[in-house]
Design brief:
Rossmann fold, 3 domains, GMP Synthetase, Chain A, domain 3, binds 5'-O-[(R)-(benzoyloxy)(hydroxy)phosphoryl]adenosine, 18 helices, 5-stranded parallel β-sheet, alpha/beta
Length: about 550
Amino acid sequence: MEPFVDAVGWPDAYARRYRESGYWQDRPLGDFLTEHAHTLGDRTALVTEHGSLTYSELERRAAALARGLTNLGLVRGDRIVVQLPNTEDFFVTLFACLRIGAVPVLGLPAYRRSEAVHLARHSSAAAYVLPDTDSASGYDYRVLADEVRNAVPELRHVLVAGAPGRHTALATVEEAGEQAGGHPGSTELDPTAPAVLLVSGGTTGLPKLIPRTHNDYAYNIRASAQVCGFGPDTVYLAALPAAHNFALACPGALGTLLVGGTVILSPSPDPDTVFPIIERHKVTVTAVVPPLAALWSQAAEWSTEDLSSLTLLQVGGARLAPDTARRVRAGLGCELQQVFGMAEGLLCLTRPGYAPERVDATQGRPLCPDDELRVVDEDDRDVPPGETGELLTRGPYTLRGYYRAEDHNKSAFTVDGFYRTGDLVRLTVDGDIVVEGRKKDLVNRGGDKVSADELEGHLRAHPDILDAAVVPVPDEYLGERTCAWIVPRKDRPGLDVPGLDAFLETRGVAQYKKPDVVHITDSLPVTSVGKVDKRTLGSRAAEHSGQPRH
Ligand code: OOB
């Protein structure tokens, strides 16, 4: 079998150790579905607003689509950009890809032209699977598909879940596969090859792609499901996008399916949508970002829905303040778990049985006994125990290199393979992580990551803008929001700030990446080494209110 040249693997000695310890089981990630279809056939796997699928139905549909994709000429190793909301189609497509060894590149529904073109181009995708429209906003993804197709001519297929317009209907491909019957294409898969490509939230420039192999992702899912006590009675609510690692695999929807539980897919995380679902389906566990946790616990005070089935609420993706943690536990009356995770791999979780104070004040301990953690200073020297520094990590499910990013990898990893997380943390005497801040240049907008570099690039492309710097500013609800400092060109005064939104729209930037506040300035402050002084900009922004975008 040809090696997967675009992704960096683990050195042999590590691979051997991870196998001997049982972390890596050398099985294709999606195989458990076929087994469940035999043993748990009639049990409900997925529930949406429109209906439900049993394990055997999910298996049958995934197998049919796998054959359909094979008929289109898609083969093992082909990349397929999958940008679907929380629907049955997302899971049918995911399992179909896994079955034939095509590698889904998981894009968020919020992505627009800029992001989608980048994913398709960077991965040299052969196909793009997306919905017809967004039912809430009316946004037409088929127009997006046209734009991506024009920009990336190598893209051979656009498959639309729903009304296809001028593209191909995903359902037609599935039906053709159903009729063809027989074996769904090649199944000889290399478990050390990437099973999925996830999008990084935290790197410079355009988003990097993270290869998660069958072996490492299966471990991530299995071990986190075990830590969280998932079992056949688990009813997991996917309120966050299923395309995000947290809701997909930590343990998320895949962790639930792995143990034979039931996944409920919500089209939105709003309490108005989610609370009736929790009551109706007796949801036992879900995962949210901190602003949602706060919102839900407030809404719970007024709601008439019965939320008592909820036994565990996972909160992660951004800093959860201890006060908020206490309020959430009281408001929702269930166990709280803090999760510090990253698409790159490492997952830390507070454990069932931790005292509430420990849950409120820490982000828990690493998933795997063989996760190696270092906390280092600017010169990569370990800081004394308990002090704050950058977290470096290496382990059986943490990447050894971004996909097709040879140059970037040189600085993103140490020579001995530790991933530089860019997070500033300290370790408690009990071995829990406490996130204290961040070194990387991004805004964590309540879990949504906005790369400063990427947004600055878009702003600098404006004809009236000479320079721009993006910094986080504190926000009561989101934790942080995005502030852009802008230096207009001298020869083109009178920058139209409200018009910036429309400009970013023409650049095809996802809505959540648009700045929340804009400051106009004559020049950007610089540090002694001549870099833009973002610390100063951050505190200045906190003092001035700037011009809100809305
Ligand atoms: C999760 O994954 P990503 O890839 O969107 O973002 C990772 C980054 C981390 O490096 C850190 O900067 C931040 O998000 N983060 C947290 C955090 N959890 C993530 N910062 C403070 N406190 C936390 N609890 O965000 C993600 C992936 C899997 C599970 C949970 C979250």
